[in-house]
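Here comes a specimen:
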Amino acid sequence: MKRLLFVFITLVLVFFTSTGIIAQTRDTALKGKSKRIVDSLSKEMDVFDFLNKNFHFNLNAKPDTLKLKPTKFFFALMPTVGYTLESHFLGNVAINTSFYIGNADSTNLSIVNYNVIYTELHQFFLPIISNIWSKNNTINWLGDWRFYIYPSYTYGLGGNTTPCEADLIDYSYVRFYQEALVHFGSYCYFGGGVNYDNHFDIEEKGSNTTYDLYNQGAKKTTSSGPVVQFMYDSRTNINNPRDAFYGSITYRYNPTFFGSSQPWQSAFIEFKKYIRVSSYSHNVLALWSWNVFTFGGNAPYLDLPSTGWDIYSNSGRGYIQGRYRGQNMFYDEAEYRFRITCNGLLGGVLFVNAESVSNYPQNKFTTIDPGEGFGVRLKMNKYSDVNICLDYAFGLMGSQGLFFNLGEVF
């Protein structure tokens, strides 16, 4: 009950500390929408409509601001407090910068997300994640830049580990991923870039010496090299997709002459499918498959695929980040998204997931670790279709907890 009360207070603080700034974003976001789309949303309701109607906040967009000019920026600033399994209580300042490089009718909305996070466990995060579309979507630039000071727990390798094997490991982390994908037909894109991971000041502080045994006690590891990616993406709105498909295959090569501590390679295969239940329903069945395979050498321990280490840190609801780790990983999830209110203000989800990591050193899959849960959705902006997501999930061996997100989990 204390945790649920904290969540309620958190959401109230989010709404009232960010209302003024997000209202500006809502107003500007309307500018790229055609009159047809705006009219179709007239019966929808989001947080701002609710505040306008019940508290007379007067946050509605003005009719003369329904055009968004290319290169014009708009911002959203959201200070929040929260709780996660891996960080306990945290403070977060999230900034969203959105803009169109080309005409909104033929160019996707580009987004850059910044976060500054500090937690009860003295962790510090500074991630900058970008998805930028050129005019007419001819090029898609993808960026993932991070700096972490991240004391956290690790549990060893394979799917048979238990919570009592938790081992505190302290390290700092710099990530630089940058790619450019070129459109070549339909929804298809192909390109590449560079991935760089640098973990340093590594110190294993517990009695479980899995890291030291695997990495020979290294206090620093670097993985650096080129990547090649093929992507198919028919999503028109990544905040809350419907009737769409996303697929991506990425190959990464980490040679020592690029600065890697040791040579290794990896392949990432990811699929997302969104199925509208019927033509007249807003309910959606969403499916996600995220799979990582390492080969051609031993990847550094902290670069191995692990629970919650996808780009948005959303996989494995029901488990703490890093709970399962191995040289190879399969992950699948299904989520049913449905409306609670007809106007779209409130929604709900039911989800199940399953992950399997290979054991070490046999490198065989012998376990499946499931998770399941439920959640509520609150519509923050009906034009960008952004929801605040609050989920409660359960895993094996008593693992459970709250999970927050702005925008759908996948």
User: Anything to note?
Assistant: The first helix runs from residue 2 to 29. The chain has one domain: 2-406. The chain has a mean pLDDT of 83. Helices lie at 2-29, 35-40, 47-55, 210-215.
